[in-house]
Amino acid sequence: MEYKPRRKLTREFKLKAVRHAALSEKPKAQLAREQGVRVGQLRTWGRLEEALAAVEQTLTLQPPAGHTDWLFLCRCRASLGLGRYDDAIAACEKSTSSGDSWPGSLSPHIFLVAAYALRGNEDRAHAEKTKLLTQRPGFSIARFKAARISSVPAYMQQTEAHLYASLRKAGIAEE
Fold this sequence. Notes:
The protein is an all-alpha fold and 175 residues long. It has helices at 11-23, 28-34, 39-44, 48-60, 65-81, 85-95, 108-119, 122-135, 141-146, 153-169. It contains ten helices and no strands. The mean pLDDT is 80.
């Protein structure tokens, strides 16, 4: 597979895109496509409500089966960042329907560990941690951070509060 370098988006572009999404009557998923960005980018910009709305709109369009797992994972991650842990768990569980063949550093089990830990369900958090470490031996918080999903301060604050802290609580290694 040919490597495609990441497109660098300016802060001004991101702010304009988010502002446009907030003011427009169009579905957020459509706006994201028109601006050449993915719905997930709204999430990594710290705009979780907008990302969640875009995912919900896209799911109502009945996307192809191969896309629904990804959309449910986006719903899970946005719900987790908003502190809606039961919604995050339900969405993450749905995102595992096609199995455990997720690319790179992503795995629904990462977010299930976090959501169950935040709900205080230690048994389920431990079970998901076991699945995660079987799937991704050596997984650590540092490895996930190394993926540099986003450097937007709002996203980083949400991720620290709702993901990294809960992964630590569940016993995921820092390094």
